[in-house]
Amino acid sequence: MTVGIVIVSHSAALAAGVVEVAAAMAPDVVLVAAGGFDGGLGTDIDLVSNGIAAAQGGDGVVLLYDIGSAKMVADLAVEMLGDPEQAAVVDAPLVEGAVASAVAAQGGATLDEVLSAAASALNLE
Amino acid sequence: MTVGIVIVSHSAALAAGVVEVAAAMAPDVVLVAAGGFDGGLGTDIDLVSNGIAAAQGGDGVVLLYDIGSAKMVADLAVEMLGDPEQAAVVDAPLVEGAVASAVAAQGGATLDEVLSAAASALNLE
Amino acid sequence: MGCDARSVAAAVVAAAGVVGEHRDELVRLDQAMGDADHGENLRRGFGFVVSALDESTPDTPGAVLKLVASVLISKVGGAAGPLFGTSFLRAAGAVGAAEELTPELVSAALGAALGGVVARGKAELGDKTMVDALAPAASARGADIPTLLTAAAIAADAGAESTIPLVARKGRASYLGERAIGHLDPGARSVALLLRSFANSAMGL
Amino acid sequence: MGCDARSVAAAVVAAAGVVGEHRDELVRLDQAMGDADHGENLRRGFGFVVSALDESTPDTPGAVLKLVASVLISKVGGAAGPLFGTSFLRAAGAVGAAEELTPELVSAALGAALGGVVARGKAELGDKTMVDALAPAASARGADIPTLLTAAAIAADAGAESTIPLVARKGRASYLGERAIGHLDPGARSVALLLRSFANSAMGL
Ligand SMILES: Nc1ncnc2c1ncn2[C@@H]1O[C@H](COP(=O)(O)OP(=O)(O)O)[C@@H](O)[C@H]1O
Ligand SMILES: Nc1ncnc2c1ncn2[C@@H]1O[C@H](COP(=O)(O)OP(=O)(O)O)[C@@H](O)[C@H]1O
Ligand SMILES: [Mg+2]
Ligand SMILES: [Mg+2]
Ligand SMILES: [Mg+2]
Ligand SMILES: [Mg+2]
Q1: For a tag on chain C, would you pick the N or C end, based on fewer CB atoms within 10 A?
Q2: At a CB cut-off of 8 Å and minimum separation 6, what does D126 contact?
Q3: How far apart are CA D134 and CA D142, in angstroms?
Q4: In angstroms, rounded to a whole number, what is the distance separating the alpha carbons of residues A37 and A55?
């Protein structure tokens, strides 16, 4: 298994697009789009919690977010798990961080390694 | 008029989603999604060039990109205009930079001001 | 009559009504500095809260607050969801299993609510957020609940007004830079509206 | 027979055939370090180039190169599009309106092509990109075009092989860090394939 990834966004299209772009370099990684709320823009904690469950393969889940409440909802969903080994929210640019995370996870990186790959994403091109 | 914005991405969904999120804070800004290639993942110079034309309202156009060839295609499309006053590519995280650009443009910022707003996007939340 | 689960639930339902009446005002405030959804986010969220309370009134004040928290967290798609949600959740924790609220418990609940918003959103006083209304409210004191909540509402009102000349350093409005100056923060306004409504409910007890 | 527009076009068509034959190999190389599309990107792009040349053969070598450039730029959806596109465009500029290529013009074209790739992609030698194949090729010399292009092809081959032990610092492969070590860069491989094909065409002149 690899670390799983959840993309938390205000937009369903944005989350799906980030998953699509990141998946192109990480065919074996479970990437889940958790975007949009109630058919429109917004963040949805249930989508995020279900996304974590879907992305969890035993090696942990990394969450990336777009802006504002997406981070808060990601944090809340992780806190609700009650186990910091299971999932972590990373503070990284969304698209760049998602690609870096996905590539790291594809390479068999641990949760901590994926987090640091995401955090240094902007220096790559 | 305001500065226009073109989102260059490998994914049509990603570009459309970024436009959707940024537009929520910038109702008067022309935001154009230039994502995907030939129905799949990839970058499309014609979409980008047409996007610049569509976003051009006389005050200039800012282009943001996701990864790799998206930057090169954006650069090429701008060079093909042959006039650096018309459009500029900004090196910023895509989603965060797009929101910052859109908000700046909505506020009547000039092309240069939008570019610096985008470039400092990651410090905001 | 004491401040039991039923009165807390009634105060929440009354507050939902106030949120509904001020929906458009909150939308306009958020339009100037954000994405114009704050009023609708809250109206919708409190609508679900009222439905949840219609279905079952939990039997302690803490349980009411906890129900409010979980509904807001899952039914509000903007920052107000996790922020108000966390604040109601922490307030619920502060009042524990008490059958009736006391001024001390209300004061503890307000302090915990503030702690929750700060933990969730990391804003400091002066960042032009709901913290600027909630922090002074949490410092209010009073010998009885109506007095305490009235003092809190007055403090929240002043705190909300104090956001007008500020630049925002958290939330969407932080993208506006200097252009945020001159605008009242929508979240601070809704905190003030909720506390005013709670104070009015308490006076009617 | 000299190296006129018609022979340059024929060399491009032959190169398109080689690209098609190596499509799967290039896909596999890009699968190890990228998004597995390099072979298909090039096969498809050169397919459009061949169609464009079928419709009209431009009347100078420079015009052929320019047509190749514009087709690759608009029909290749990956990095190879703007990179090869810019290189063919710069090469076209270097040979100008000449009716026939000379060794000096071919050498100038290779240098300009390298300049174009570097201007577009900002990679330096050793960044594990097509630059590692094109830069040594552009330094090759020869008294006649077949000799020059053969030397360039040999240099490009060696340059491509030299990418194997490297870590990538540009392009998608840069995301892989150390895991790129041990893999041949797909873009460097395709530069080598194109130059080998051009050399073969020149020998048949
Ligand atoms: N990090 C934060 N800390 C405290 N309050 C915040 C924070 N971010 C946003 N807010 C509050 O949330 C309000 C906006 O709420 P709302 O419009 O529902 O959310 P959104 O910005 O997601 O659309 C702001 O007016 C502000 O008071
Ligand atoms: N910045 C760059 N400078 C030079 N060459 C690059 C650069 N980025 C990518 N490349 C080359 O492009 C090749 C990948 O091409 P391709 O697969 O068509 O593009 P993409 O990465 O967009 O899918 C790499 O093997 C490398 O040689
Ligand atoms: Mg809002
Ligand atoms: Mg919102
Ligand atoms: Mg590729
Ligand atoms: Mg590609």
Answers
A1: N
A2: D132, D166, D169
A3: 16
A4: 20
Structure-token pair, residue A25 = 């370099």
Contact C91/C139 with Cβ under 8 angstroms? no
Residues of B in contact with C171 (CB under 8 A): 125
Give me the residue label for tokens 């039991």: C4
Q: For residues D54 and D87, is the Cβ–Cβ distance under 8 A?
A: no
Q: A88 - beta bridge partners?
A: A62
For residues A62 and A32, give the distance between their C-alpha atoms in angstroms, rounded to a whole number.
Answer: 10
CB-CB neighbors (< 8 A) of C93 in chain A: none
C-beta neighbour count of B75 within 10 angstroms: 21
How far is C94 from C77, CA to CA, in rounded Å?
A: 26
DSSP A82: T
**A125's tokens:** 């091109």
Domains with residue ranges and CATH for chain D? 5-203 (1.25.40.340)
Give the closest residue to B72 by CA, choosing from B32, B111, B43, B97.
Answer: B43
Ligand 2 neighbour D121 (Cβ under 6 A): yes
Q: Which residue in the block uniquely carries the two structure tokens 């506020």?
A: B107
D160-189 confidence digits (pLDDT tens): 999 999 999 999 999 999 999 999 999 999
The pLDDT tens digits for D123-162 are 999 999 999 999 999 999 999 999 999 999 999 999 999 9
Q: What is the ipTM of this complex?
A: 0.96
Structure tokens at A121: 């994403």
